[in-house]
Specification:
2 domains, two-stranded antiparallel ribbon, two-stranded antiparallel sheet, 70% helix
């Protein structure tokens, strides 16, 4: 039977919907063998054998095996709880952002700037705002592509494209609506485990993507400082020291992340010492959680990155995609400036946008509230002039509010085809190869078909 299964198995393997399917209450009912149903019975035996079950001795080749997969255990209770906590943080953040919005409107009214604000909005070229929104859409698509590149080499990866769309949307949604983006990581890991990855595999994939994103922010800021350091010094003087310090902190953060991946045991020992010291003084509320972080998650974080680093080509590809993705994000003020008819240099906007995001991410409030307003006024206030308030609102709309609203419906996306991205990519590649092979061939005058190999 196993030989028949091997012969009749399709080329595109099906991925399981859970990492370790468990057969619950399997029932075997015999049926008359049919000529065309033999391959189906063989295929039914293959997944059962893969799950660790063996057919009974009395089971005939034509028997139909009915089983159901218990997919509930694909996601641990800890992952569900972390996702619920992230949603709880979102509810609090929405209330906070509502209060901030009302405070901003009150400021415009009582400061007498409402008329200027409304007149500025009436002069906006909406086509440039639409282009800015499309630029953020490209940012999202590149983010999904970076995840796809990370799993495309694994033929047995259970993650599909729609799963990764949900993961990237969760990153956007929870990064914007939780303090300092703390809810993004558990929400993304939850959706990776929900797609069928093990907890360790989900953590490894997320940690690799996280490190590449952090490294991309540091590299991009370094490139922009090289090209526009004179501009910052001439425009802001000594205040640019704050931006340089933020850049240095980002580089230090990347160095620490790489060091943790290289020497996890050393950092675990340091973490244990700090944890014992804090617990002794009563500073730790959830000791068990932090003990697991120090002793388990650091090792999983390191092992996951080391495993991904073995394929350096894919890692470099993910980094290049990350730099392009960040470029789309940092270019959004340039679109808003053009919407107001302002002349703007794209490289200067990219450099200022990079510094603005570093400042925004340094504020431990939902959406970097406070840092976003102050940073925009400092870095782009001179470019917008009297239209700075309207410019900030439009930039915040296409960079923060609109992406958050659009990401919410994508959180529930799940892949259902059952085919891995690796097999799908190979199948499409084979179709293109056959298509070009037909176009490359031709018929001579004697009716002989010539095929180039």
């Amino acid at each position: 039977m196993a030989e028949d299964a091997d012969k009749n198995a399709p080329v595109a393997q099906k991925r399981p919907k859970a990492p370790k399917p468990q057969v619950v209450g399997a029932k075997v009912s015999a049926s008359k063998p049919k000529p065309k149903a033999a391959s189906k019975s063989a295929l039914g035996a293959a997944p059962k054998a893969a799950a660790g079950g063996a057919p009974k001795a009395g089971t005939r080749a034509g028997a139909k095996v009915k089983y159901r997969v218990n997919a509930v255990k694909a996601v641990s209770a800890q992952d569900r709880e972390a996702d619920k906590q992230s949603m709880g943080q979102v509810h609090k953040s929405l209330v906070f952002l509502g209060i901030v919005t009302l405070a901003y409107l009150a400021y415009l009214i009582f400061s007498g700037q409402m008329d200027v604000f409304l007149s500025s909005l009436s002069q906006v070229d909406s086509s440039w705002i639409l282009r800015g929104a499309l630029c953020y859409l490209v940012y999202y698509v590149i983010g999904v592509s970076a995840y796809v590149l990370s799993v495309i080499t694994d033929p047995n990866s259970p993650v599909g494209v729609r799963d990764l769309m949900s993961v990237e949307a969760a990153g956007v949604f929870f990064m914007n609506l939780t303090p300092n983006g703390m809810g993004a990581a558990p929400a993304q890991i939850y959706r990776l485990t929900r797609s069928g990855l093990s907890v360790g595999g989900a953590g490894a994939l997320h940690s690799t993507r996280f490190i590449m994103y952090e490294a991309g922010e540091g590299i991009f800021a370094a490139i922009m400082l090289i090209f526009r350091l004179d501009y910052f010094l001439d425009s802001f003087g000594d205040f640019i020291i704050i931006g340089i310090l933020l850049f240095a902190f980002k580089i230090l953060e990347c160095v620490v992340l790489f060091a943790i991946c290289a020497y996890p045991k050393f950092f675990s020992s340091i973490g244990n010492w700090v944890l014992r010291f804090a617990n002794k003084h009563g500073w730790v509320k959830d000791y068990d959680h932090w003990y697991q972080v120090v002793n388990n998650q650091i090792m999983e974080f390191s092992d996951g990155f080391k495993s991904a680093a073995k394929n350096k080509g894919d890692l470099i590809g993910v980094l290049v995609l990350t730099l392009l993705q960040l470029g789309c994000l940092y270019a959004l003020p340039w679109f808003v400036l053009n919407a107001f008819g302002k002349e703007a240099d794209l490289i200067t906007c990219l450099a200022s946008g990079s510094m603005l995001e570093l400042l925004t991410s340094a504020i431990p409030l939902p959406g970097g509230t406070g840092g976003a307003e102050g940073g925009f006024a400092l870095l782009f206030g001179g470019m917008f002039g009297a239209q700075a308030s309207a410019g900030f609102v439009l930039w915040r709309a296409i960079e923060y509010f609109l992406p958050t609203l659009c990401a919410a419906p994508l959180l529930g996306l799940r892949s259902t085809s059952g085919e891995s991205i690796n097999h799908r990519f190979k199948r499409y590649g084979a179709r293109l190869h056959r298509l070009f092979s037909r176009r490359g061939g031709g018929k001579g005058s004697g009716g002989i078909k010539i095929t180039f190999k």
